[in-house]
Amino acid sequence: MVTSRALRTTIGTRDTFMEIQELFSKDDLVVGLEPTDKWDAIRILLTHLIERGDVPEEREEELHSALVERERSMSTGMERGLAIPHAAVDGLDGLQSVMGTVASEAGLEFQSIDGEPTRVVILLLIPREQKLLHIRTLADIARGLGREGVLPALLRAEDADQAWAALAGEG
Predict the structure, then answer these.
(1) What is the DSSP string of 31-72?
(2) Which residue, of 43, 44, 120, 160, is most buried by count of CB atoms within 10 Å of its CB?
(3) 9 lies in some domain
């Protein structure tokens, strides 16, 4: 199995779509988030990337500012309970991603396109020089989570193992 880090350094050069399980390792799945608001969800997921060593701690405020600035310019709340806060930044070796599921069935207000609360938050940090990576990654996420049964199984997951199985369509 390709590790998350190894994948992230090559993903920008691919020509075909990628399965959603290839975008995240099990360690990239945070089940049961309890954020106070969307800003807190962004901070929690960024902190997860830092604690894993995926991004340097000394860049935390810079990366947080880039994510907040992007979110303030236009909400990344999508449809069907999904939000994808993201930012294009300089100095990354590859795509950095983390997915969190919101514990509360009431969800999280994210100013979504369909007006519905968010239950799944996917944070992406994208190397600025890999412009097509952003569009391809969003399409791959939509395709993966759009498969029948994946999103409900993901929301039922009680831990990263169950979330991983849900992404594979085994939930």
Answers:
(1) EEE--SSHHHHHHHHHHHHHHTTSS-GGGHHHHHHHHHHHHH
(2) 120
(3) no
The CATH number assigned to the domain holding 122 equals 3.40.930.10
Q: Is 97 helix (H, G, I), strand (E, B) or coil?
A: strand
Single out the residue of 38, 150, 135, 155 nearest to residue 95, CA to CA: 135
Q: Is 145 within 8 Å of 82 (Cβ atoms)? A: yes
Encoded tokens for 103: 């514990």
**pLDDT tens-place string over residues 82-112:** 999 999 999 988 889 999 999 999 999 999 9
Find the domain containing 144 and state its range: 26-101+112-167
Does residue 8 fall inside a structural domain? no
pTM of the predicted protein model: 0.86
Cβ of 30: how many Cβ atoms within 10 Å? 19
Q: Which two tokens stand for residue 18?
A: 């990628």
CA 54 to chain CA centroid, Å, is 14
Q: Is residue 20 part of a domain?
A: no
Question: What length does the chain have?
Answer: 171
